Amino acid sequence: MAHRVAVFVRPGLLPIELGIVHRLFGQATSAAGSPLYDVRTCVLEPGATRTDADFTVVVEHGPELLAWADTVVVLSSDKDYGPQSGGGLPRHLAGAFARIRPGARIASICTGVFLLAAAGLLDGRRATTHWQSAADLSALYPAIEVDPNVLYTDEGDVLTSAGVAAGIDLCLHMIRCDHGAAVANEVARGTVVAPHREGGQAQFIPRPVPEPRLSSTAAARSWALAHLDRPLTLRELASCESMSVRTFTRRFREESGLSPLRWLTWQRIGRARQLLEETELAVDRVAEAAGFGTAASLRRHFQAVLGVSPAAYRRTFRGE
User: Fold this and answer.
1) What is the pLDDT of residues 79-118, one digit of tens each?
2) Could you say which architecture CATH assigns to the domain 3-197?
3) What angle do CA 173, 156, 111 make, to 5 degrees?
4) Is 257 exposed, middle or buried (0-12, 13-18, 19+ CB in 10 A)?
5) How far is 12 from 14, CA to CA, in rounded Å?
6) What is the distance between the alpha carbons of residues 315 and 1, in angstroms, rounded to a whole number?
7) Other beta carbons within 10 Å of 296
8) Domain spans of the chain?
9) Main-chain phi, psi angles of 137, to 5 degrees
10) Matching CATH topology for 3-197 and 218-317?
11) pTM exceeds 0.70
12) 218-317 carries CATH number 1.10.10.60
């Protein structure tokens, strides 16, 4: 019998997320051509349901479908992006979640994770969401180990994914776990997506380092940015502000939230990302221009911080 998947949506749903789940699970077939999944959509109140676009979708099934499902996928809603209470589920949602049978697998896409968190399903577990919402999730639900860098997490019976398109990665992962790599790869080929993406969300975060709020070390930062291609020492940076190394280091950390050397690494990675995206410079030349010295050093730092190689990053954001 086909594995039963219930997609739980709410008003303000993102149509692309709904399409991802139906398309990917719907493409999975056995060697004999039989569907491996039976995918249906449900909502609290069946009927026309508002999307975040300028149209509605008609959902025939109500929350009773949740009791039928082997896997429940909770999608995000545009309401998730507003302030969150951080409390438990509202009564109407709690009643719906109570219908999910014991042993069913539960997954979320993007900010749908806030419902799983409010239901207490993620306490003491690792989870992710869109990197823009990760700080809110962590602050509102401190019992959750929030990882903003990965595309998805798998805690066995509870899975979460990052923003929107990471739902593709999550669905392929579940198909791979259920039926093996061959089936998942065939679904990926049929949908014209990569069966496995390298790295995580870190490579998509435009500015992972907070802007300094004060300015007593601004001159040093400005000078460093103009000389990223050369080795820089703490003594040189401190001299730009006529400070001792100790005082400069303390002030710098207060203003940027990072040590000077950690800040330099982030700036060099940022410069390398820009060059990989916007130029055709060879990787070793990018490494020199960004101050990493060698291609090997650049690869090591990229892998540690972004989870991908410079070549893979360039393919993602520039193409072959």
Assistant:
1) 775 545 566 788 889 999 999 999 999 999 999 999 999 9
2) 3-Layer(aba) Sandwich (3.40)
3) 70
4) middle
5) 7
6) 40
7) 12
8) 3-197, 218-317
9) -60, -45
10) no
11) no
12) yes
